[in-house]
């Protein structure tokens, strides 16, 4: 701290924190659509601060801790308050307990990430990242406003969503982190075409497509776990047989 701190990445983190706080202000004013949009803005700032720190070589322990505190506010407390005010208040105590579960799981997810950051593969996150969980919530709110679905359906859907997303945040499912250095290197031309096509579709129907994109990412962890289950079982059996062979060899000696 005596040597100072890096300004640029921490300004992006502050931007994320500001967007999360403004979302809470919008929620208390009953403007839930604006609140949902500012959570998405916060996730953009959160994605930029880490990339700026890595590209400029300004990553620091202070930045990591500051980012986690900002994430807890922007992607834990803010969406929890939004969900309670928008859909869960009629449930009374059950409503605010469900919202608190989301906040608690976000805090546990961030604490586990800080502990495992030096030991876990950088290309994968363990558990659903909190920005993705909060973005899933905000895109759901925007989808309901887009289609004008009834409030009874809203209450049931958001209650199921809370428990599902909270579980995924503290699960051991692996999620792609988009931190792979290969992404910024030369790629086949077809990748550019697909990227342009995706951006065009999102621009045409932003609310629907954002919901679909976040939903696909949320389910990517469980789907990848199921698809890799046979390979993991074979690996576990091979390791177990190896241990048995070593044990038998030691007994013969």
Output the radius of gyration: 21 Å
The string of secondary-structure elements, in order, is HHHHEHHEHHH
Going across the biggest sheet, name each strand in turn: 1-2
Q: Looking at the structure, what is the overall shape?
A: globular
Low-confidence stretches: none
Contiguous helical run count = 9
The first-level CATH class is given as: Mainly Alpha
Strands, total number: 2
Compute the number of structural domains: 1
Calculate the terminal CA-CA distance, rounded to whole Å.
Answer: 57 Å
Give the second-level CATH assignment, the architecture. Up-down Bundle
- Summarize the biggest pleated sheet: 2 strands, antiparallel
Helical content (DSSP H or I, runs of 4+): over 70%
CATH fourth-tier homologous superfamily: CDP-alcohol phosphotransferase transmembrane (TM) domain
Beta percentage is under 5%
Q: CATH topology, what is it called?
A: Four Helix Bundle (Hemerythrin (Met), subunit A)
Q: Roughly what is the average pLDDT, rounded to an integer? A: 83
Structural class: mainly alpha
């Amino acid at each position: 701290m005596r040597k100072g701190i890096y300004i640029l990445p921490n300004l992006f983190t502050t931007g994320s924190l500001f967007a999360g706080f403004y979302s809470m202000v919008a929620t208390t004013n009953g403007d839930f659509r604006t609140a949902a949009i500012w959570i998405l803005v916060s996730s953009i700032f959160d994605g930029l601060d880490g990339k700026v720190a890595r590209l400029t070589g300004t990553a620091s322990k202070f930045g990591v801790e500051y980012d986690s505190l900002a994430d807890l506010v922007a992607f834990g407390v803010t969406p929890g308050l939004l969900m309670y005010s928008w859909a869960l208040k009629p449930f009374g105590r059950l409503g605010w307990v469900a919202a608190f579960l989301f906040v608690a799981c976000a805090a546990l997810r961030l604490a586990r990430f800080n502990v495992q950051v030096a030991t876990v593969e950088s290309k994968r996150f363990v558990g659903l990242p909190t920005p993705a969980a909060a973005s899933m919530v905000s895109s759901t709110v925007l989808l309901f406003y887009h289609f004008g679905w009834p409030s009874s359906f809203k209450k049931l859907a958001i209650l199921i969503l809370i428990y599902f997303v909270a579980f995924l945040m503290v699960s051991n499912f692996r999620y792609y982190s988009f931190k792979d250095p290969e992404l910024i290197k030369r790629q086949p031309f077809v990748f550019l075409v697909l990227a342009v096509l995706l951006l065009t579709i999102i621009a045409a129907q932003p609310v629907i497509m954002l919901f679909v994109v976040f939903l696909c990412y949320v389910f990517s962890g469980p789907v990848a776990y199921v698809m890799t289950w046979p390979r993991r079982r074979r690996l576990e059996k091979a390791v177990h047989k190896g241990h048995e062979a070593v044990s038998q060899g030691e007994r013969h000696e």
